[in-house]
Amino acid sequence: MHEAPEFDEGTVFRSLFAAYPDALLLVDLEGVIRLANPAALALLGYEKDELLGLGVDVLVPDAIRPRHAAYRNAYAAHPRSRPMGTQMDLVAKRRDGREVMVEIALSPLQDHGLPYVVAAIRNIADYPRVRQALQRARYAEHLARFGRLAVDTREVDKLLAEVPAVAADALQVEMAEIRLLEPDGLHVRIAAATGPDAPQRIGQRLAIEPGSALEIVLTEGKAAVAGDSDSRDEVHFQLTSNDRETGVVCKLLVPLADRGRTVGALAVRSRDRRNFGEDELNFLESLSSVLATVLQRASSEEALNHAQRLESVGQLTGGVAHDFNNLLTVISGNLQIVRDLPGCASDPLVQPLVDAAIRATQRGAELTAKLLAFSRRQVLQPAVMDLGVLLRSLTGMLRRTLDQRIAIELDVAVDLLCAADPMHLESALLNIALNARDAMPNGGTLRFRCRAATTPPPELGTAEAAGRAFIAIEVSDTGEGMPDAVRERAFEPFFTTKESGRGTGLGLSTVYGFARQSQGAATIDSAPGQGTTVTLFLPRAVGAVAQPGAQDRAPSERIPAGLTVVLVDDEPEVLAVIRQFLISMAFEVLPCADGQEALQVLDRQPVDLLVTDVLLGPGIRGTEVAANARRRHPQLPILLMSGYSGELLDDQDGWEVLAKPCTRADLERAIGRALNPAR
């Protein structure tokens, strides 16, 4: 038998100090570093013995160094143990100047007769849950950024070229590409790519090898993983000869669809072993969905140019808004859920990333709202209003906010009542005013004039205008004016004369769409050097009484907990997000994927509220579900959700309508109104 070696405390403790996985520093009461273990050197970027003798302040970012010095002096006077997890907002400065978020535990040794403090330092990015949250936030930010670009940009080639770069950057792989199916069905063409060999690959035709991941994606319309990946998927496909020639180790492919038909694939390829898990798959599928919407929009725009009529844009914008709003609902809803998780709510690193992604989805929602306005698929709530009151309020606000060199004049005839949506009218007038401001960079005059129209607008035609009275709201500026070529296209969506990044080209098109959906019209009178006048013609409410100003009606009392809600949506991810919102309100939720299932549930058990999307894919629409439910249960409160379907809501029968995407607070307010319609 071997004798056990004699126990040497010094040797054991030195070994423990060196082998400990967290970074350890031994610091004296003057703040001088006396010992540092290898983990500390690796985390902070120093070589062996470089830290010894340095003041601990070198590890503190310059901006907070004075505050840290005061804290250290106070701590030296009253040293105490501080465990990990009590503070999450600490930052360490590495030798190369980069900063890293850390947790720090302090263990004073004075009670053991030693004038030192042991500082244990841990990089919080090493936590799996934090790392996953950061990764998801990064995916959401990349997706939202591309979504904004997809709405802002009409150049399809530019968007196609951007998609592989977004995919590769988000998933941190070397190569990504878009492969479009050729007419022969046997080949794909690489339409866009990023990576070291991208210039050579773009335009190449690749044969679809039997049994390959690409064939499965194109024929079955589902994602596939090939090569040496850590993905949990049981089925892994073999790499193709082309992959092996280019050094690919693993790849992930998702289908690219156009109106339900698979037309290609979005592929990411890596020369290293990668984990393509559920988060990566969801991100790539969402990116592919946005790209598919872009391609559909491009196809619709081509049809628009061929027809040369503004009205045909409605199909394009409605389709984009519907798909994109569903996508935004999933993104923003999950981000809100992530933001409210206890681990994220207190994390100063994750929270700003999530908030930035939420703000990006809100910008995307604002842009789709403009598309809806032009395509006349926004949900309007017309009311009889006094235009004098609205215009005086608007011009008062503009006087406080616009350039002081712009004089604002108002001329409103008395007793002019209009039947239109007050909120959307104010938004339309604000859009016109902001365009006028941009046309007067050195100042000028912005004039609002409101009068009864002596003749109906010629754009409506005799039949549409017959027997109706109109009010004309003129907004004039003394700016640069427009040449004929610009004036004739001013109401076109996406058309703008502003430099890149300053305009979406949707401002005046939303004005046009609002006027037409309000049973009116919009015109532009302009010439170079003569300024511009935009006129809105809206239906006049003769003999009516003005209603109180439109306000966001919040429920006046708390919504009771424990309500049973039937939730209907054919998009599983949207259903999951809205269901989570409802559960957080302490509701019992009965989710349904289609209208027929919802009606069966309503017949089986008592229900307190029906929440249904308007468009439910094949089968009955949400409005039909609501109508059937109302006939069977006359007192049942009903809330409709809509991504764009204004024309489907003409027969909404007084049901409350909630536009998607929405926040949890939006949903709660809408439920309050549905439960208390008289409030």
Low-pLDDT segments, ≥5 res: 306-310, 549-556
Q: Just name the CATH architecture of the largest domain.
A: 2-Layer Sandwich
Mean pLDDT: 79
Shape: globular
Structural class: alpha+beta
* CATH-level-4 superfamily name of the largest domain: GAF domain
How many individual helices? 21
State the helicity in percent bands. 40-55%
Number of domains: 4
Kindly report the spatial arrangement of strands forming the biggest sheet: 8-7-6-11-10-9
Number of strands: 23
For the record, give the distance between the C-alpha atoms at the N and C termini, rounded to a whole number: 89 Å
Reading off the top of the CATH hierarchy, the class of the largest domain is best stated as Alpha Beta
CATH topology of the largest domain: Beta-Lactamase
Strand portion: 15-25%
Taking the sheet with the most strands, its summary is: 6 strands, antiparallel
Using only C-alpha atoms, the radius of gyration works out to 31 Å
